[in-house]
């Protein structure tokens, strides 16, 4: 009597990760094939929790166009609420993290504003 696909899947679902890995290896040897790594990982629920989506970001000023330095300083001053001297020091210290703990939308807006002013920024 042959097993149904559902019976085979139920049996695999109840295996430990090691048992599933051994099964994959035995199938590779028996049938002369090679299984892709994601198939082996998806075989059991013990693969680990799903990765959480990042909700807080840091924006780093990576570089800036020297000819547009003043415009970049103005954006940094306005975005961070710091004085002119502090904003200038931050810009001249590039590459430097400007602000941490930002939402994705706020980080994207700051990056766009810096780019428009002549800076190159990235989100981390």
Written account of the structure:
With 124 residues, this protein is of the alpha+beta class. The chain is 52% helix and 16% strand. A three-stranded antiparallel beta sheet has the order 2-1-3, with helices on one face. Helix 4 packs across helix 5 and helix 4 packs antiparallel against helix 6. The model has no long low-confidence stretch (mean pLDDT 82).
How are the SSEs ordered, and which strands pair?
Layout: H1 5-13, H2 17-31, H3 37-41, E1 57-64, H4 69-80, H5 84-92, E2 96-102, H6 104-117, E3 119-123
Antiparallel strand pairs: 1-2, 1-3
Helix pairs in contact: 4-5, 4-6
Low-pLDDT runs: none
- With helices defined by DSSP (H or I, 4 residues minimum), what is the helix count? 6
* Class computed from helices, strands and strand pairing: alpha+beta
* Binned strand content: 15-25%
Q: What about the largest sheet?
A: 3 strands, antiparallel
Search tags:
124 residues, alpha+beta, three-stranded antiparallel β-sheet, 3 strands, 52% helix
Brief summary of the model shown:
By secondary structure, the protein is of the alpha+beta class.
